User: What shape does this take?
Amino acid sequence: MVNPTPDKQLLHLVIGGELSSLEGVTFADLDKVDIVGLYPNYAAAYAVWKQKAQMTVDSAQTRYFIVHLHRLLEPEAPKA
Assistant: This one.
């Protein structure tokens, strides 16, 4: 059955890659940034982020991030 009032998408982006140093969030090579994907909610993004982060646990300079796109697209909206 189709939901007549679908849940609002709270878009999240998961990205990662090798950082140029451990002190900041500057990627060593933007051409090699891993754009993992877009997810409709934090829980889905977190599950993928955790998997990618665990795959790179032996590389201290490789980090993955969850970007809250919904906050950038609608900055005045209440935080979910």
